[in-house]
Amino acid sequence: MSTTSKSTKRDRSALGSRLVQAAFILSLVALWYIGTTYGQISPILLPNPVRVYDELVDVLATLEFVSDLGVTLYELAIAFSISAISGVVLGYLISRSQYSIRVFEPLFAGVYSVPIILFLPLYILFFGLGPASKIALGVSTSFFPIILNTIAGFGYVERVYVLSARSMGASDYQLFRWVLLPAAFPIILTGLRIGFTVALLSILGSETIASLAGLGHRIVHLGEGMDMARMFAYIAFAVAIALILNTVTSSLEARARRR
Amino acid sequence: MEVSDVAIRVRNVSHQFGEEGSAQFVRAMLETTLDINRGELLCLIGPSGCGKSTLLNVIGGLLTPTSGQVLVGDTEVRGPLPHEIAYVFQENALFPWSTVLENVNLGMMFQGVPKVERELRARTSLAAVGLSDFANHYPGQLSGGMRQRAALARALSLETGIILMDEPFGALDEQTRMVLGEDLSVLLSRTGKTIVFVTHSLGEAVFLADRVAVFSARPGTIKEVIKIDEPHPRKPAFMTSEKFTDLRNTLFALLHEEIRKAMEQSAASDRAAGGDGNS
What is the pLDDT averaged over residues B138-145? Predict the structure, then answer.
């Protein structure tokens, strides 16, 4: 009984903080509306939210967004697949010897702290303005959190788990399948989620710098044409897509952890 | 004692960690020889870092000694012998991502028990330690004492002749420890298993053991073996008897000197190296 009343209390306070969050966002939008309707703010700098909403409806209704969204998601899918597969496989191989962990872990951690966006001009030179340079950037940002977490996951499994499995006669495969993998899994998953998020960020960002297509490209293009309301509509759309993707990956992670 | 009654023969086993002269060098065990009889419970007791756990790991095949050999039956130990020897570790050796039942099952799967038999054995061994109702709990949901019961169930399900226990109750509070000790004594008196049990606790050693082997300070070797002549299963009343106190005092006297020596040693090596080479 006491636990149920406690959990409803927690639900209620969670609901309360949700309401405050919603009120905060609504008041920002209201401020935006009042400022652009009754104030002296130029629509070139900040268009009216009602116009932005109309443009967003138009973008969605005409399905104009499909080709740009397709390009961005395609780049993201390729980049994330490459870094997820290579990061997990290489991370596992490195974790198999203490020596290679000592060599590679600090190396990757060092490279991870470098602002990789600086390599974008180089990637554009190598791979052109199309998706290939965005994929290269996405891979180089997401590879490091994935491989570092994989090394941490496999490399620091409690020794007593390995000893007890060995004492019961576990083969190499059984040790991997039933001990190392489940021990490392939650940590690898965190690496994959971080990798996914930074890949999305860097791909959208690099599209705004130099590109031929994609959501980031579309936003800059509209901004350069002074079509501010539609640009804001696309920004809102891109934010929504990013939110949805991050929510999906976080909930996948939480679900896999619960097992 | 006839030759065939010996389950484990430890012959001149020495072990050192690291190369001689290097900073990590520790001479953990020196020329240890010991016979462990079939069906007895032998406690290893000694100052910390004296090599008790090292000896246990050598017997279990988890550690290859620098010199000497261990025979289990007629086979020389060269690696884990999952069909002869099961382990109970100090704590948290259960896989936290699996339920108690899955943990027991996995052990038998590693050992190679067919699936149909695993089910039955898992149920029997969980019942033996009183955890039937907790089969589907995760280790994190159990108390420390229950986790060690589960670890014991996993070891029992392997149906080995020998169980090695490395301070299995070391992380538990005094009361839980006492109750588990009593239960263990009852449980094991029925199975006829050979048990080697490492402990820090003099009381635990006297209460559980048929014989207690006292280790000297590092490099550890067996200083003396004390016989505890009391039938199993042992009653709680044994703990308050004069015999118990006498035996405990005998052990204390043997051990006290060694603990002093060990502490002086470690203080000296701390001064020399600025760290300790605990094993």
Answer: 91
**Domains delineated in chain B:** 3-84+160-273 (3.40.50.300)
The proportion of chain B whose per-residue pLDDT surpasses 70, expressed as a percent, equals: 95
Please choose, from the candidates B48, B50, B71, the residue with its C-alpha nearest in 3D space to the C-alpha of residue B59.
Answer: B71
Give how far Cα B21 sits from Cα of A74, A231, B26, B67, B173, Å: 60, 72, 10, 18, 40
pLDDT in tens, A69-115: 999 999 999 999 999 999 999 999 999 999 999 999 999 999 998 99
Where do the structural domains in chain A lie, given as residue ranges? 2-41, 66-258
Q: For B60, which of A167, A182, A183 is closest by C-beta distance? A: A167
> How many other C-beta atoms are found inside a 10 Å radius of the C-beta of residue B171?
15
Least confident of A187-191, A194-198, B55-59, B90-94: B90-94
pLDDT at B273: 61
CB atoms B109 and A174 under 8 Å = yes
Min Cα distance A8 → chain B (Å) is 23
H-run or E-run covering B73: none
pLDDT at A8: 63
Determine the topology of domain A66-258 in CATH: MetI-like fold (1.10.3720)
Task: Check CB contact under 8 Å for A169 and B98.
Answer: no
Nearest chain A Cα distance for residue B236, angstroms: 32
The pLDDT of B236-262, averaged and rounded, is: 88
State whether residue B171 sits within 8 Å of chain A by CB: no
List the beta bridge partners of residue B215. B222
For A141-150, what is each residue's pLDDT tens digit? 999 999 999 9
CA nearest neighbour of B159 among B101, B118, B199, B189: B118
Residue type, B207: F
pTM: 0.79
Nearest CA to A69 among A256, A240, A258? A240
With a cut of 50, say whether residue B278 has pLDDT above it. Answer: no
Rounded to a whole number of angstroms, the distance from the CA of A100 to the nearest CA of chain B is: 20
CA-based angle B224:B226:B228, to the nearest 5? 170
CA closest to B112 among chain A residues? A169
Complex confidence, ipTM: 0.85
